[in-house]
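Case study.
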Amino acid sequence: MSVELLSLIIGGLTIGAALMVVISKHPIRSVLFLVVTFFLISSLYILMNAQFLAIVNIIVYAGAIMVLFLFVLMLLNLNKESEPKTPKLALFSSVLASGILLLVLIAAFKDSLRLQHVRLPQQKQIGLVENLGKLLFDEYIVAFEVSSILFIASMVGAILLAKREKPIID
Amino acid sequence: MNPTDPTFGTSIDFYVILASILFTIGAFGVLIRRNMIVLLMCIELMLNAVNLLLVAFSTYYGKGDAQIFVFFIIVVAAAEATIGLSILIMAYRNQKSTDAGLFTNLNG
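After joint prediction, the assembly is written out as follows.
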């Protein structure tokens, strides 16, 4: 089976899973389909020889962020009955608006579509941890350190926001 | 399968179209859904569409810089999901609902 056919199949499955995220009424089903979408996108990364990002995508997105979403869904005890309804007019107008968005995106990229093929095996090494690590700790070290500050800020913010306020006793 | 064959591999326009469709599906979800958690998930979907396009062009040009950008996008998305979900839990305590239309007390 050629790489092109494989990526076509995986791409079609990705679009289907992403549509199921949006369409399915049950929030837990949406989360699970989003996990499926992330796994399929990771396999597309592997087909493009970006092995490090494929693993990071699975560990961080499917492993950490989606589990956080699942925890919040189970904490809030949401189900199909509590799902808010969308009005018919909003449904129609959002179908129209996103159709126009897709049309504009495809029209904007139309000239770029005469590019050559992605020749996957020629730069086989760039997606490996060794090369990306050299690049990350060489050129992008400042951004890497700043992102650690961002993480501490978001951690403190999450604890402060989610903490239940103590009742004031006078 | 010969790796030096220029027709080997997938063409870049497949990834451009796939990323456009995924981004549109994410935007469609943001427009159509009222549940705050599903809105956050649709934003993650749009971020992933952009990541896919960045990785495709990183492979196309043979440079690793775009993959570092994807790494940072994943970092920022993790921080964003944490803060978004904690704001959501706080709003749920007051509102007893995750309907995005009910969060009118968030505007200034």
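Observations recorded in class. Chain A touches chain B through 88 residues (CB under 8 Å). The helical segments of chain A are 3-23, 27-47, 51-76, 88-109, 129-138, 141-162. We will return to this complex in the next lecture.
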